[in-house]
């Protein structure tokens, strides 16, 4: 078998190939991942719920034959049910109270692909914040600088992948929660089209939430999406079937793409010079690869950021009410964090028509984006308006509530548009600043056109490899 540290930096496709050739067993891969987690997690706080017994049982029961048979995997502790294991959604409101009896559709498909889930990862409460710093578990920390955020809400998954604990991990995205931590941790993060992966048995947020993963390699992301994509019976949203498997797009010629780029966020926030530099660097790289690149941006209606905030607020109020019904009790006292209570209070001032008007207005932004993408194959922006910020930057108190609110929307200023429009998008790790922090760039494609993203991502990965970069914590 490959040395355990060398094994840690193989991608999931390569690890699965070792198992298929009989050069490593699933238990050996699991042992290596567990040893690395034991060594690194005290510094990262990426893993919050061990599931070794479930993993060993899955292996003993004979794993399905799939693209990732025997590969260790981590599940984000939010909106993804693993039968018999508590789901906390990052909140003290849940604790150990909710133990699902059945797997969600996504988890069932992950299992069918041969992945071996051995733990759950850290996330913000209800996935609300672009960091993974819940009161329930404490903050996840960035392997590139433990004083900095991992991004969120899939921050635990991103930290674990960046540190080499696993090559790929589950993530989901309601406003950037795949792409934000991918940017902060130097990973590839693709948010699929609305309905590409089923959310069953849940129906979350008027279609703004997408399920997938963060990974080190483009090919892992494509192969996992092939394994999990497709509607479940009764899904309210579904994406058209791709022309061929996404894995076949990796390495395929993307052609000469027409790419519009801009650094103007939807909420008018200032953009850090490092993030502008990352954007300009990516634009030059795309041009060097033969693509047509020019400054251009969609013509969105003013106030889109505020309307997205209204949708998020209404979605949280629904989520808390729905879970109160499931758990048989409403939250009280310190069950919820100050941020969450603030949003619930704001929701009380919303009427049903306020919420539906916000949904209508944000969905109309999808038309604005679609019109822009009639002239361009892709829209390129920074993923974030700032490099990874210090842990605690979004902490909320009565004294700093205005500043905390502004900090959240200034940081995650580019990603939400794809959630309301439903378009696929990816954060690609092409740039590290002078402080050694990764800064992603963000490509948005036409709806249901993940194929173009995978083709370009693989081309960028070849031209500017990132998988050999190692964060200090993992050294």
Descriptive report:
The chain has helices at residues 4-8, 12-20, 26-44, 52-60, 105-112, 155-162, 179-185, 218-228, 273-288, 304-327, 338-348, 352-372, 401-411, 416-421, 450-463, and strands at 47-50, 72-76, 116-121, 168-173, 188-191, 210-215, 258-261, 292-295, 378-382, 425-432, 438-445. Strand 2 (72-76), helix 5 (105-112) and strand 3 form a beta-alpha-beta unit. Helix content is 38%, strand content 13%. With 475 residues, it is α/β, with parallel strands linked by helices.
Descriptive tags:
475 residues, alpha/beta, Amidase signature (AS) enzymes, 8-stranded mixed beta sheet, 3-stranded mixed beta sheet, 15 helices, 13% strand
Mean pLDDT: 95
* Number of strand elements: 11
- Extract low-pLDDT stretches: none
Strand content: 5-15%
Q: If you compute it from the alpha carbons, what radius of gyration comes out, rounded to the nearest whole angstrom?
A: 20 Å
User: In CATH terms, what is the architecture?
Assistant: Alpha-Beta Complex
The biggest beta sheet is recorded as: 8 strands, mixed
The CATH topology corresponds to Amidase signature (AS) enzymes
**Number of helical regions:** 15
Name of the CATH first level: Alpha Beta
Helix content: 25-40%
What gap, in angstroms, lies between the N and C termini? 21 Å
Shape: globular
**Total number of distinct structural domains:** 1
